[in-house]
Write a structure and sequence with these properties.
The chain is mainly alpha-helical and 263 residues long. The protein has helices at 2-22, 25-34, 38-74, 77-99, 101-109, 114-138, 140-167, 171-199, 205-226, 228-261. The model has no long low-confidence stretch (mean pLDDT 85).
């Protein structure tokens, strides 16, 4: 099970990174509900989910397409193929789980977590039963699929419908704004990771990290293209405020000059 533990440890680092960002959404959700700000809650869900996916997606993309190379350089060639395959399988569920981190924190903040607890219990039983069955059929990959399948059922079928019902948001609107647009943004970076792993050879970890850093601008471009309206709005808001400050300053200087010119 060392192969499974290697993949699991990498995913746990990813999970902790995103979780450290999304935990602040729980008190925010409680605060918005106490003030009756439903629109703020909806905005928190969409923006928070989008941020979680955008934070996790470059790491997840690199691990999915180049995880076996990273494990080979980190732990040795004997672990690369098996652990890399397990990592790819587990990443499928992990990505969708991360996409629901914000929804989970909001549900806790609104004291709507009873359904979450029941779904977690059902997922655990499904995980145990499927893992025992599939490990006999396809070995260690069966344990991974036994974890992934119940998780996907919960993350894809339960959570989006549940949180949208609680906050009264149309499910298609939520999925498009929070899941699909960030997912499309990472596609160019995923392609770049695949091509770099196929045509570039990394002989040590530092070289591997340099290769990842070299293609990170592709991710930035993908995000900018998929969220160009939001970028344009932020740009106008930022430089519009600077322009207004300069104009007020010029008017103040002009008034000061007029006062100084009085006899």
């Amino acid at each position: 099970m060392t192969f499974y533990a290697i993949a699991g440890s990498l995913l746990e680092y990813l999970r902790q990174l995103v979780s450290s960002v999304t935990t602040v959404f729980m008190p925010l959700a409680s605060s918005f509900e106490a003030r009756g700000e439903q629109e703020q809650l909806r905005r928190l869900l969409i923006q928070g989910t989008r941020a979680s996916i955008l934070i996790a997606s470059p790491i997840a993309g690199a691990l999915f397409f180049r995880g076996h190379t990273f494990i080979q350089l980190w732990m040795g060639g004997q672990y690369a193929q098996i652990s890399g395959r397990v990592l790819q399988i587990l990443l499928i569920a992990q990505v969708f789980g991360i996409a629901n981190f914000t929804a989970g924190n909001i549900a806790y903040g609104l004291a709507k977590h009873r359904a979450f607890a029941l779904s977690a219990i059902g997922e655990s039983f499904g995980n145990l039963a499927l893992s025992i069955f599939l490990v006999k059929q396809i070995g260690i990959n069966g344990v991974a699929w036994g974890t992934v399948i119940p998780s996907l059922v919960v993350q894809l079928l339960f959570w989006p419908r549940y949180i949208c019902k609680v906050l009264e948001i149309p499910v298609p609107h939520y999925l498009w704004q929070s899941w699909i647009r960030p997912g499309l943004a990472v596609v160019p970076f995923g392609v770049a990771c695949y091509l770099s792993d196929r045509f570039l050879t990394a002989t040590h970890l530092f070289q591997f990290l340099l290769q990842i850093a070299a293609i990170l601008p592709v991710f930035v471009v993908g995000v900018a293209l998929c969220f160009r309206k939001e970028f344009a709005w932020q740009f106008r808001a930022k430089f519009g405020s600077l322009s207004s400050i300069f104009q007020r300053g010029r008017r103040s200087l002009k008034r000061a000059d007029q006062v100084d010119s009085l006899p």
